[in-house]
Amino acid sequence: xxxxxxxxxxxxxxxxxxxxxxxxxxxxxxxxxxxxxxxxxxxxxxxxxxxxxxxxxxxxxxxxxxxxxxxxxxxxxxxxxxxxxxxxxxxxxxxxxxxxxxxxxxxxxxxxxxxxxxxxxxxxxxxxxxxxxxxxxxxxxxxxxxxxxxxxxxxxxxxxxxxxxxxxxxxxxxxxxx
Length: 178
Prior knowledge:
By secondary structure, the protein is α+β, with helices and mostly antiparallel strands. Helix content is about 25%, strand content about 35%.
């Protein structure tokens, strides 16, 4: 059986539940048509460039999930190439849970949300921590932002999908620094 991009989330168990709940036929049509994307499109690049935060999901080797808010200047999550996103990882609470998880399990998830315009995008892929690469950090960091980058994180896209806007509560954007 040919693997399709949405299989990353629509496992056989998920598909069975979709069938039982009556939504599988519409997702099968989506999969037969354009389906989910596997690389950066101009629309995705524009969406990313306007965000100043996202959520990064990782899991340790035992499968215990962890999600962390990542914030920075608008556009700090950058398109590196047609399959790769990257960001400068700023110093924080020094727990290093995401860094540790990625050292033993590269599977990762990025959840992008624009609260102002009620838009969200889900990205599945793999991520890696890049230490001691000054050229990469210079490419990813914003010298005007007060946070100090400690390392870079690169995310390779396997699949992404636009999520429905239903139930997104409006939030006002307040610029974090001038």
